[in-house]
Design a protein that fits this description.
With 646 residues, the protein is mostly helical. It contains 27 helices and 3 strands. The chain is globular, with a radius of gyration of 28 Å.
Length: 646
């Protein structure tokens, strides 16, 4: 057979199915001949039917795409399993990648199928196990050998996958750096108006303090309007097309900002800028969540968000350098900030058409067939029994019916107002503490460099200990201490130290808040909607942040610092509510349905089968005997087996 699986005719596929069945029923001593014959006939009849897929079973697209085990076959097979004798041991269709170990577990001493694709299929078909398996808890649990009897009682064994770290490194190399670069440009283009102020934009355009603040805030009006639609479009379309398209659009707008000559034209450009820019961060966050498991996600999102801190670092240095171009070609220095940064964005956007990969289901070229299958299985096992992957308007609606979404959104507002106000006004705040403009631009870089360190460090420990809320609370307190010092101290050194605390404390809160929601919302459509809504509501804080530091409050800006203190307090309250509620809900589910064992939760790996349906015993325990498989998958985070990450 070798590499001819995808080229079989009907007769060859029938023979292959019979071969597979000979392994599946290898050790079943009490199977009735008539029942076995019926199932074999079912396999044969399926060979000539259209090869359909379960839309929400990602693993089917890898292993059952053009093989005898079609999705329709699997469905019928699972139905016939229910009619077998009580003592018969049958295979639950779990996909394995470690062929040699699974053959040993299945009692198969040798085989003559030589290609990797067929090896995986054979391992799938030979999951029947009558031998004693070592029950020592493995360090990296991932696969489960599920053997069930006809009455639904299952036994679960685990199989290590030593290639996970290699796969993660490959994903990190191909996905994270590109998205981080794009978000760096996104944040740089949004906040560069703060550097343009130091280079004379308010003087050139004769802007009042209120007019300048309006230009800061108006971008977030379109942010709020277009956030959710943009994420839904990303879900429906390919990221490799949608993300570069919005980048080209906002890059052109930024470039045109260098041509404005009045308050009205600057205001219009800032309003237009928000519409395409809004899609990048929530889109990139959702995109990464489609590739990584929940407890791997915080680190990757924090690396992504660290681009904002790098933008603050490089933005000040870049603006300082561009200021020396003042008068070049008869243009002011602040115009060159928009020209150069806008053109860079357009160029990178064009390149992004070629380096952005799409979702796992699109089977990107940088992964092998086996690696794609592995990604599917990892996502399925992490999603658990309630993990539908298909787009669903029902899930969009359910997202808005979850009260926790609104607490998360308030929490995000409380965090985002201090972040955005600081990014917009930090150069002005530093300048008003006694530094000339070019030194103020350079002095904004070190606090952002510190923020990069705190963001990445928090992500590492957040994933290591599988905690989100406690890190948010810690850094909110650090941020508040910085604002308190800014209010009460009138010493230059103390104020600059306080800027470090405020600038370094709030970015890790943003990244962790995003992963706090993403790790606790399922299925994917509900997560994409919730994430976009939270960020959209949070961007209302952007409208507020542009108004709280007024020129008349200089040089100490006590009112602005006090307002940020109040929003930090709001975030502390919301985070505490979420931690308490999620902890109580986990305990309630443990009490009603039984706790999740240490083995099942090690490294965020669960021992559910990849079809996510559970055994008959599981369904009885959960109270799901009378609902369909699709309904079980649509439960998402409401499923009895789901446990929230605190």
């Amino acid at each position: 057979m070798g590499n001819k699986w995808t080229k079989m005719n009907a007769d060859e596929m029938t023979q292959a199915a019979q071969m597979i069945l000979s392994y599946v029923w290898l050790d079943m001593s009490e199977t009735k001949a008539s029942e076995l014959s019926n199932i074999q006939k079912m396999f044969r009849s399926t060979m000539n039917e259209e090869l359909e897929l379960f839309e929400d079973d990602l693993e089917c697209k890898g292993y059952i795409r053009s093989l005898p085990l079609t999705a329709k076959t699997v469905y019928r097979y699972r139905t016939d399993v229910k009619n077998m004798n009580k003592n018969d041991r049958l295979l639950v269709m779990t996909v394995f990648d470690n062929v040699d170990k699974n053959l040993k577990l299945a009692g198969i001493k040798s085989h003559n199928i030589d290609d990797k694709f067929s090896n995986d299929l054979l391992a799938t078909a030979t999951g029947n196990n009558n031998e004693t398996v070592d029950k020592t808890e493995p360090k990296n649990i991932e696969y489960t050998l599920n053997v069930v009897t006809a009455d639904g009682i299952s036994s679960k064994e685990t199989v290590d996958d030593p290639d996970d770290k290699k796969l993660l490194r490959k994903l990190d190399l191909h996905l994270v750096p590109g998205m981080t670069l794009l978000y760096l440009l996104n944040y740089l283009d949004r906040a560069n108006i703060g550097q343009a102020k130091l280079n004379g934009i308010t003087t050139s355009l004769k802007l009042s303090s209120a007019q300048y603040n309006a230009c800061l805030s108006v971008v977030y009006v379109t942010y709020v309007v277009f956030e959710v639609p943009s994420n839904l479009i990303l879900k429906k379309l390919r990221p490799s097309r949608w993300i570069p398209l919005i980048m080209v659009t906002w890059g052109i707008v930024v470039t045109l900002m260098g041509l404005v000559n009045s308050y009205g034209s600057l205001l219009a450009c800032r309003l237009l800028l928000g519409a395409p820019e809004v899609g990048l961060f929530p889109g990139a966050t959702y995109y990464l969540s489609s590739w990584y498991k929940r407890r791997e996600f915080s680190w990757r999102v924090s690396i992504l968000f660290s681009a904002a801190t790098l933008a603050g670092t490089f933005g000040g240095i870049l603006a300082y350098g561009i200021n020396n171009m003042n008068g070049l070609a008869g243009r002011e220095g602040w115009r060159w900030i928009f020209y150069i940064e806008g053109i860079i964005t357009v160029v990178v956007a064009v390149l992004a058409f070629f380096f952005i990969s799409d979702f796992p289901s699109d089977r990107p070229k940088f992964l092998t067939e086996s690696e794609c299958n592995r990604v599917f299985i990892r996502l399925r096992t992490d999603a658990g029994p309630g993990g539908a992957e298909h787009f669903s308007w029902k899930q969009v609606g359910l997202a808005f019916l979850d009260w926790k979404l609104y607490i998360w959104s308030l929490n995000y507002i409380g965090i985002l107002v201090p972040l955005l106000s600081l990014s917009l006004f930090l150069p002005t705040i530093v300048q008003n503490r006694g530094f000339v403009s070019y030194k103020a631009q350079l002095l904004t870089a070190p606090p952002y460099a510190f923020a990069f360190i705190t963001t990445v460090t928090t992500a590492y420990f957040s994933d290591k200990y599988a905690q989100r809320g406690i890190f948010i609370l810690f850094w909110l307190l650090i941020t508040m201490s910085g604002y308190i010092i800014l209010i009460v101290a009138n010493n230059l050194g103390a104020n600059y130290f306080a800027v470090f605390l405020a600038a370094g404390g709030i970015p890790p809160c943003v990244a962790t808040c995003i992963t706090f929601l993403s790790c606790n919302i399922s299925p994917q459509t509900k997560r994409a909607t919730s994430l976009a809504f939270m960020i959209s509501v949070g961007n209302c804080g952007g409208i507020i942040s542009g108004q709280i530091y007024r020129a008349e409050d200089a040089p100490r800006f006590v009112l602005g610092h006090a307002i940020n203190l109040g929003f930090c307090t709001l975030a502390i309250i919301c985070t505490s509510i979420l931690i308490i509620d999620l902890r109580l809900e986990n305990r309630r589910r443990d009490r009603l349905y039984g706790s999740v064992t240490n083995i099942e939760m090690t490294n965020a790996n669960t021992t559910v089968d990849v079809f996510g349906l559970g055994s008959a015993e599981d369904r009885r325990r959960w109270g799901y005997e009378n609902i369909s498989e699709e309904q079980i998958r649509d439960l998402g985070d409401k499923h009895a087996a789901w446990r929230y990450i605190l």
